[in-house]
Amino acid sequence: MDKFVVNIIHRPEMVPEYAEKVTGHGKEEDIGRKALLTESLDIFKTQQEIAHKNGLRTTIQMTYASLFNEEAIALAKADHEKYGDEIALSLLGLPCTEFREKYKTKDFCIWMFSMEDKKSIVNDVFEKFHDAFGFYPESTGSYYMDAELVNYIKETYPTVKCAVATCWEEGPKAYHTCNNSWYTFMDGGPWAPWIPSKQNVHAPAADESEDSGIVAIPHLSRDLLACYDGNGSNFGTHPQNVLRGMIYDTETWEFPYLYNLIDQYRSLEKYNNGYAYNMVFVGPGWMNKMGRWEAPYELLLKSYEDGMAYYGQLKKEGKLDDMTMAEFADYYREKKTYTEPECALWKDILYGSDKQLFWFCDPFMRVCVNMDQGGAIVDLRPYAAKLNWPVGIGTKHVTDASYPFLIQEKYRAGYFTHYAGEGTVRSAKLTYKGEEVDLCLCRTKAKFVQEEKVRSLVLDPVEIEFEDLTLKLQSVISFEEGSSDIKIERKILEMSDPDAEVEINEYMVACYGTTEYAEDMTNVKLHITNGSEERKIDYAYKCREEVMEGATSVSAVIPEIETKVSLRAEKEGAAGYMKEGYAFSPMFTLGYTAKLKDKEAFATWLKLEKAN
Fold it and tell me: What value does the mean pLDDT take over residues 28-48?
């Protein structure tokens, strides 16, 4: 039976982010202000009441500040007894008078502290929780939790089985839309639940030896197209996102986009063996009595009431299962295997276009395929490396928790560049009598096909017109479960001249990084071989190229992200090539060229491996 699971997570955040300045009315900062604490608790009560009125159970993530409040503790105990809500523990909501007096800081993001402080804070919060409730929590979370933090929590408090562990696509795009002031970068993680590896929280575990011991869920369920193209904070199933993005009827205060977004998440069961997931993760700060996001309190309240009513109606109709976080962790481990991927064929539900993106995530990679660019790969994260990436004070990455990319069209241009150089993309070009067409210019649609362990995107054929030749070409992109390969097959279905021959150039332009800014490429090693001969290029920004007939592999090793990426082809007469970039275009290119006639096909494989 198909199952749509929702986690509704509330937290009594006694000193919610942003709220002190509003309730303070210009007074000197005082995070112990009674009006702030009272209003925050009132909003938490309201959120709980709205969920329960609609027959929905919640996970109550107690914050550190709330553990000093007897009323908040009593409320959690009462709702656990009456409604079956889970009492859990959040690592958000740290700021309070007691915390600031002890740690002498205004930092509030657990992953940004030094490891020594992370351990101390975890011990403080978990023991305070135990003092209040007499047991340790089974669930915890934050906007992001790095691997070292997760490993320490699981080792020290083994009852924990579920955690909110990353916020989908909260990188430079989110930073720029916060006036360059939101110093938390965490691009490149899964958008749906996963079992994080011990080495890197973003990268799912490939087997039991890599299993961190928890099931991770994302912070909010985001629009996988609008969020990718723009600021994620405007596009999610948290009503605050919809209001922040101004995606509602300003006269009637209706929210059709919110329901469409929830429904699109429901539809993901078609691609994931009958299972779909959604979550709402809210604190009281956004439902401020003074209003927020250009919205009065009455609209903030209505948005939450309407959202919970929709979930409640789905539950009444038997279409939704409202689990607590701990329940979901048990269900997920029964339902999913380590190598089973998460797939999402996502369509535009906001702007009225026909655009489709396909997202694929497994222990070896995260991939985005853009049908508006002919099925080009526009985002590629090499999870196969399981890159150890410590985050926080005392590490190389105080603020940047992102998993590095090899391809990222938003930060490294993609196909559409200005006038010189190349952007990162995996696509193909067809050439005939000196004319060249890139499939990035050929919009198409895709359907999802699963045959046992192989999941494929079958793209609608595209028509390509040269001056004196027209042809139809179809692309099929396949992912075999448990493999770190992406197979791309192109087939010519028909030609206006059956005797004509075209050249196909399967290429990948790549680099590495987590932001828009170029990294030093001088350690990159390019390699090509045909089994008996091999050639190398040590990257030095010199624009060098090598071509080899009958190449069995063309590859690049990027030591900074411990990744090897390679292409191979199986066609007689195919030639492999590699290109070094230059300072203005600091990329590298791997590719294969071959001749194709009518009804012929050409397949290539992109493989990701850890480079020691």
Answer: 77
